[in-house]
Amino acid sequence: MFIEPMSLSRILARASLPLLWVLLQLTSCPSSPGQTAVAPPRVLRFLAVTADGSPVADLKPEDLELRVGKQPRKIVNLVSSAAEHRNIGFLFDISGSRRSDMLIPDETQAALQFLRSIWRADDSALVLAFGEITVNLAPPTSDLTQIEAALAKIPAAQYRGSTALYDALCSIHTSATESSEGETLLIVFGDFEDNTSRISKDAAIDKLRKNNIRVFPLLRPTQERFPRVGKLAEDAAKKFARSTGGDMFKVENERDLAGAFHRLDAELKGAYRLTYDFSPGDSQHTKVELRTSRPNISVLFAR
Q1: pLDDT at residue 172 tops 50
Q2: How far apart are CA 57 and CA 49, in angstroms?
């Protein structure tokens, strides 16, 4: 049904007082040239852990120094976010390079044990596997039985084909924003080689940062006859972790695997949400620096 547009004077004549006020605001004169809008505060999430792997749960604003674009910024608020819900993703490399990897069953068991140990009713998790394409084995769910069933499929998968790691990382979707509650983390199992992605490494990092997803590579060593490939893969894993506020763990055996999940548990217990003054000149790519004056403490944040 087509409704003839009404003139502004007819709308005002029929408008209630609240609607009239809104319309008057919309049609009022713009701000004076010297008047500037106040930018809302910005949020920075970070994890704090000691050198020996213990969570840091008592940081105060005066313990921290924040710079954005090399300029000091005032910390408006600092709160622990360790009790907020978590979105936890598991991404497994099932390409041909992992065909002879004997640690894969241990990876899936360690992932499930870790999830059970930290799980809260409002958490969610997902499981994906990738080679040349990405397979969604369990979409985001709060049902642990679905996650357990998905993880059980990983050791029996057919390990073949090329590796499209960066494409797989870009397939992760989340509704999280920098101001929403909860951490979103992606734990990646594999050698971090990529030989067939259509998306570049930097583009994948940009998308993960935009979606506020922390990446935690659990890096498996490559075959020793390809040392240059292994070095490039390790550098890529470090870059993904550092750029997104995650951490990288080299995993050569079951002990390393257990140690990685133990430290990850501590890092999540040291989660914080920091609010700071925002400048209109800031952008997603403006360099952020966060330091603490307290010794032997590492802070993990998207850089």
Answers
A1: yes
A2: 9
Task: Report whether pLDDT(22) > 60.
Answer: no
Q: How far apart (Å, rounded) are the C-alpha atoms in residues 183 and 276?
A: 18
How crowded is residue 270: how many other Cβ atoms within 10 Å of its Cβ? Answer: 24
Residue 190 bridge partners (DSSP):
219
> Which stretch of DSSP H or E encloses residue 66?
strand 64-68
Stronger pLDDT, 143 or 227, i.e. the higher one: 143
User: Residue 132, CB half-sphere, CA atoms under 13 Å: how many?
Assistant: 5
Count the alpha carbons within 13 Å of 88 in the hemisphere toward its beta carbon: 23
CA nearest neighbour of 90 among 113, 122, 57, 64 = 113
Under CATH, which number does the domain 87-269 receive?
3.40.50.410
Q: Which two tokens stand for residue 20?
A: 């009239």
Count of other CB atoms within 10 angstroms of residue 224: 7
Q: Domain segments of the chain: what residues? A: 43-81+273-300, 87-269
Q: pTM of the predicted model, to two decimals?
A: 0.84
Interatomic CA distance for residues 94 and 160, integer angstroms = 7
For residue range 53-65, what is the model confidence (pLDDT) as tens digits? 999 999 999 999 9
Residue 264's CB is within 10 A of a number of other CB atoms, namely: 22
User: If we measure between CA atoms, which residue out of 290, 201, 197 comes closest to residue 241?
Assistant: 201
